[in-house]
Amino acid sequence: MAAGAAEAAAAVVEVGTTGQFEELLRLRAKSLLVVHFWAPWAPQCAQMNDVMAELAKEHPQVSFVKLEAEAVPEVSEKYEISSVPTFLFFKNSQKIDRLDGAHAPELTRKVQRHASSGSLPPGGSKRLEEDLSLRLKKLTHAAPCMLFMKGTPQEPRCGFSKQMVEILNKHNIQFSSFDIFSDEEVRQGLKTYSNWPTYPQLYVSGELIGGLDIIKELEASKELDTICPKAPKLEERLKVLTNKASVMLFMKGNKQEAKCGFSRQILEILNSTGVEYETFDILEDEEVRQGLKTYSNWPTYPQLYVKGELVGGLDIVKELKENGELLPILRGEN
């Protein structure tokens, strides 16, 4: 009887409606709930389902759920799921963490951290501190100019972060960002790592420059432009990107991992031609994602370019294939 109960507890639950999801949030409020937003067409999701099944056996006190993202769009839109796989972590019916992508080691770490009651083995606390310090070093060096903020540049979630983004954009400074709301460990750990208690925080080449007040001072003294790297003008950047390879595909995901059904279909068509091509993941760069729509006068993705010229999206590529015109175009014969 006890073995059967343990086996049931270790099972991964599949949810198919918004009502089922909300009911599960309510029923499992007191335990950690891990939700995998997945798609049947994505092989990386199948791999992560296997990882989650193993984690369910190791952590019977944690509730693991599978939710097909495109089948329950209301839930996916509410939690801003733009790619698969994505994992959300809930406690007390509130989202406490998020993981985008097929990162099995990181998923395991997050489950272990959130499931922990706070007790650590001897030496465990020091080891965790060392792991966090290494992670923070990598994050602060992730781009020449890194902004740790509340929210994203597109949707700042506090006035100070919004002002910081406005200043950087006004000076055409090229920067990447990290949403500290997405990771509580980073949010708290970076305060100690940098000895700076508030956000936003701006880093250049891994070194802390400061918060909003210091950036304002640097702007006033005209030093900001000499410290931070300049971004190329968007139009110039898009021209370079569309000409990066003879055949360029702008898509959600990449050659190895398509993150939407349309991108997956166009990959299959291109792969069937045998023509070499490069891809650009628009989910990794919001500026390109929005700017290319205007640059090409084409509102959706994927977008296929040959020698810098737009061919079209999935429907046009399908038509060209059916008409026997696709291969000559990809080879530059038309």
Description:
- A hairpin with a 2-residue loop joins strand 12 and strand 13.
- Helices cover 46% and strands 19% of the residues.
- It has 15 helices and 13 strands.
- It has helices at residues 2-9, 18-27, 43-58, 73-78, 104-115, 124-140, 159-170, 184-194, 212-220, 224-227, 234-242, 261-273, 286-296, 314-322, 326-330; strands at residues 13-15, 33-38, 63-68, 86-91, 94-100, 145-149, 176-179, 201-204, 207-210, 247-251, 278-281, 303-306, 309-312.
- The strands form 3 sheets. A 5-stranded mixed sheet has the order 1-3-2-4-5, with helices on both faces.
- With 334 residues, it is α/β, with parallel strands linked by helices.
- The termini are far apart.
- The radius of gyration is 23 Å and the shape is flat.
- Helix 7 (159-170) packs parallel to helix 9 (212-220).
- The model is unreliable at 1-9 and 117-125 (pLDDT under 50).
Summarize the structure.
Keywords: Cytoplasm, Iron, Iron-sulfur, Metal-binding, Repeat. It holds the Pfam family Thioredoxin. The chain has 15 helices and 13 strands.
**Percent of residues in β-strands:** 15-25%
Give the class from helix and strand content and strand pairing. Answer: alpha/beta
How far apart the termini lie comes to 70 Å
Catalogue the unreliable spans: 1-9, 117-125
Overall mean pLDDT stands at 88
> Can you write the helix and strand succession as a string?
HEHEHEHEEHHEHEHEEHHHEHEHEEHH
- Computed over alpha carbons, the radius of gyration is 23 Å
Helix content: 40-55%
Shape assignment: flat
What characterizes the major β-sheet?
Answer: 5 strands, mixed
Largest sheet, order of strands side by side? 1-3-2-4-5
In DSSP terms (H or I, runs of 4 or more residues), the helix count works out at 15
What is the number of E strands?
A: 13
